[in-house]
Input
Amino acid sequence: MTQTATSERPDDGYITQDGRKIGGMLMEMRNITLRFGGVVAIKDISFNIREGEIRAIIGPNGAGKSSMLNVISGFYHPQEGDVIFRGEKRPRMKPYQVARLGIARTFQNIALFGGMSVLDNIMTGRLTHMRAGLVQQALWWGSAQREEVKNREKVEKIIDFLEIQHIRKTPVARLPYGLKKRVELARALAAEPKLLLLDEPMAGMNVEEKEDMSRFILDVNDEFGTTIALIEHDMGVVMDLSDRVVVMDYGKKIGDGTPDEIRNNQAVIDAYLGVAHD
Ligand SMILES: Nc1ncnc2c1ncn2[C@@H]1O[C@H](COP(=O)(O)OP(=O)(O)OP(=O)(O)O)[C@@H](O)[C@H]1O
Output
């Protein structure tokens, strides 16, 4: 996607050059600080994510990117700052409660059930939508069955969309790496998230797998209107996919803007070239 415009946009949204609709604020991180004992992983960082946007968080190793993703997904709780989701301050929540709000994620190191089939793995992504617990399922078999059928339909649609019909019965452990990553994406999508967090979706992939994954990320965003925030080290991918990019270095935010703005940001260039700073 070519990006020439600036990151200054009207509050209620805009249309991208390739015709996608970007809306108002979906999430705002306000003055987030996160410490681990004496280590300050995130220092007073603010940024926002708009509805429908593909937003990247980049930075050198140890910059604090994973920590930030973990704050967004509720794994870490910042000592300072607020997380605003859909206009409301999010109270301290457990990750499963954050998932119920509509935030799903994939992991850098694939976190699937190796012995289970692709289909069953993706079904686990529907758990946040399942109302019937085990006891309910036993007592109200009819409604639990209807729910199962509905969940299956959603999952089948995702399987078609991500072109993994041919491996639906295959145990995940037997799949090549690129396909495992695609199954992880499918499982996260099964939760029908408003915000999808991707932790290094291209890590360990060959060129062809990266091209496939890039296409699927764009298609998911376009077809389902899913807002996506991703951490990624592959600069080519980041600059191609993202509407806007946040750059972190040593826990601080050193850049925030469109790919073009980031490419021309001297602090960002210095950080990647390893220029010393105070
Ligand atoms: N659970 C933790 N306990 C203690 N320190 C941590 C923890 N998680 C992260 N850190 C520290 O916080 C800082 C930021 O780490 P983080 O993993 O967020 O960076 P990153 O940008 O994701 O790095 P990478 O690209 O190498 O994955 C580092 O100094 C790291 O050692």
Q: What stands out?
A: The chain has two domains: 1-102+193-278, 115-191. The two ends are 35 Å apart (CA to CA). The chain has ten helices and twelve strands.
